[in-house]
User: What shape does this take?
Amino acid sequence: MSAATFAQITLDGLLLGGVYALSALGFTMIFGVMRVVNLAHGSFVVLSALLAAWAYERYHVSPLLVLPVAFAAAYALGAAIHRFLLRRLPAEVASQEATSLTLTFGLSYFLAGAGLALFGGTFRAVPYLTGAFTVGPLSIGQARLLAFVAAALLTAALALYLRATPAGRAIRATSQHVEGAQACGIDVDAVRTSAFALGSGIAAASGCLLSLIYTLNPEMGDVFTLNAFAVVAIGGLGSYAGALAGAAILGLAGSYVAYFANAQIAEAAPYVIFILVLLVLPAGLMGKRAA
Assistant: This one.
């Protein structure tokens, strides 16, 4: 392999990993605050991607303009799901975890059915910025670069929100220690609603960006749920820095395996890495080990 080919494959993997990171941050936020593995995560990603594709196909609207609309809609839907469904789960932690998995699993299929009713079963994509920039021996797809830059800006905005605003600090405090947050006067139930809504909105935002890269249909939500789970499990469940590292690994693995083997094997590569990492580091790269 030449140095130019190595650089090209690495660049492609990192650009894709940046968008994966944004999606995984929504997933890990919900888990970090609520200890809920949201199996409907991928449905939010796919539905927003299909909305972006439909808007571009029908009205030639850029996915970047659809993104805030999709975020707001998913935020409102996520808040409603938590308020009217997840809040009614049993108080016992073990029962709550099992029931939340079942509930979000059923919700994922409900949302997939809604997507089929709204958009049909055909595959859709956004043929937006189909050219590429050439920098020396490297070719950088315009759409992939745009998705990466937008994802990086949104990730930075999320980090600023979590660190610099009272609502963001309440989310961080609740994810670190629920009883401590309650002792400080934080309304934990309201924070959980906000976290689930924000995680859903982030998933929708990533879906608009992924519509620039992937061709999707409403039944592909499970793929993105598994991708997000693999990212956060590799990096460490509940770790935001770990999610960024896991996304980079996922993107690079897919890029290298696709080059040396084929696209079908590349789809399985992240899960092989996921299994190997957990065999060596059960808590993930940056997760906290159990005492």
Summary: The two ends are 45 Å apart (CA to CA).
